[in-house]
Amino acid sequence: MGLTKVDTKGRVVIPRDIRKRMGIKPGEEFLITEIDGDTIVMKRFDVRKMLEGMIKNAKGINLDELKEETEREGNRVAKELYDL
């Protein structure tokens, strides 16, 4: 745990001991999420890992089936919303 401040440009410094333990290097990106009014969570953001996961999940997708399913769902929602 460490104490840090927000500077005039909105930047926050991650304390050195935390950076060292976690192997955080300059230029790494993080996702920042507000949990509630006084809690923020930072998670390492690895674009390569995210893209690899997306590609892995997309390999089994049949585009024709996806298009048909999208049209069916759009028609279902339109019927509900507009009493068609």
Automatic annotation (TrEMBL):
Pfam families: MazE_antitoxin. It comes from the Archaea. Residues 1-47 form the SpoVT-AbrB domain. Gene3D superfamilies: 2.10.260.10. SMART domains: SpoVT_AbrB. GO terms for molecular function: DNA binding. This is AbrB family transcriptional regulator. It comes from Thermococcus siculi.
